[in-house]
Amino acid sequence: MSLLKELYAKDELPYDKFMRLGPDCLSDAELLAIMLRTGTREPETVAAYYMERMRHRDTEQLLLVLLDAKRHIVNESVLSTGTFNSTLISPRDICIRAMRNEASYIVILHNHPSGDPTPSRQDVLVTQKIK
Q1: Which of 57, 61, 112, 131 has fewest C-beta within 10 Å?
Q2: C-alpha closest to that of 65 among 52, 49, 77, 48
Q3: Residues near 131 by Cβ (< 8 Å), separated by ≥ 6?
Q4: Could you give the percent of the chain with pLDDT greater than 70?
Q5: Is the whole model's pTM more than 0.70, yes or no?
Q6: Treating both helix axes as pointing N-terminal to C-terminal, what angle do 14-21 and 28-37 enclose, rounded to 10 degrees?
């Protein structure tokens, strides 16, 4: 038995739990851990995970997910809560949080309370500014 399995013998690893019980028996955190630890680079997969959680909000929220070099979640936080159609964020805030948490990768997401996923002009400008 591997050392990792021995350490987690009581608390079954998320992937093993998924294989034994199926996805309905896992928490959102366990499902995300499986996705991120397999190194998924599919934006659609990450978006789908958060979409369900964020789509019922009445205001825009900007979420920052920080990952280490192995793509494990280091920190997840709401950076900004805005109005029904906008939110404010500074690239400086993103960099500060990423550096404080020693993140290797960042994922930035936000919702559209209107249900229309079309990026607004402001969405495009902010994305370009962050890049």
Answers
A1: 131
A2: 77
A3: none
A4: 74
A5: no
A6: 110
